[in-house]
Amino acid sequence: MKWDVSFETKCQGMDLSIQDQYHAISFPIYQTATFSRSYLGEQSGFDYTRQTNPTRSQLESVAACLENGKEGIAFASGMAAVTAVMNLFDPGDHIIVDADLYGGSVRLFNDVCSRYGLEFSTCDCSSEDVGSYIKENTKALYLETPTNPMMHVSDIEELSKLVHGKDILLIVDNTFLSPYFQNPLDLGADIVVHSGTKYIGGHHDTIGGLVIVNDSGIAERLRLILTTTGAGLPPFDSWLILRGLRTLAVRMEKAEKNAKIIADHLLKSPHVTKVLYPGLPDHPGHGIMKKQARGFGSVISFEVESKEFAVKVLNNVELFYFAESLGGTETLITYPITQTHAAVPEELREKNGINDRLLRLSVGIEGAQDLTDEIDRVFGL
Description:
The chain is α/β, with parallel strands linked by helices. It contains 13 helices and 12 strands. The longest helix has 20 residues, at 248-267.
């Protein structure tokens, strides 16, 4: 953007490099596979949608602007984005990854990337000595903060100081907080990854992924990977995420407000044995979150008294949706052990605390009283 404007204004996607000739307020969907040329040697900037597309490019520009990055690249899913980032590395390279990650990432690292010669070590980046895991062939540190689903918080700035100068890239999955609450590039990260399916899209209606960087060399390599593998986000999905971004700020504010109310409500229940939410003052990562983020997000994980009680809750919700994913306007309740983290090896799940009593809430923007009433109703059955 040309102007120094607020985050909320940036979300509207105004004054970016690509402009529709008719000055449409809603950026057009360029639903085309290819682009014609008037004569040999003409260059419009767009040739073939697998490579580039104006709607996708508009989304990439907005996403980069929101993350205070130089370039954004939009992929067909969050996992396509993570896969592209892993393709930056060569066989024999070593990557340190947080022990508590989304199950799809763990499956990618263990079942796909390892087969092609990448080496992985897992550690708790929020509490362990990450430096002790660094080897001569270490090329990256990959983490989520807060983590999914145990809500561990890592200090991005301190970790960036640890790895920089050692030819190690710091990669941060910022899905849980979105660029509204946290900007890892400002804290020293080299690469930021988002599942655009979640808060950025915000309506549970499309799948997408984003990578934002400040290094033009990394961006060029990622675009080559996107073009070669065909992993780019289609025009219509790009438009849906662009539309979702316009309300990102107001959605994040409302969802976080609801999450704080629900976290406090869960603490009062005799059926709940643990509440994991960084917005609670006694959460181990609360202080770090206050330092590096502008909010705490709206994902809450909590343990109940037994597996039977967890099953009862899942089978009787009405206002909540029993579904995977997170970050939309509706509140979702998820059972990580069989849904989002089923691909995580059992030993690691147990070590991380992902058990059959753990539930995860992605709090939406409904009325807070309705949400607490739903908890009381289901818990009281």
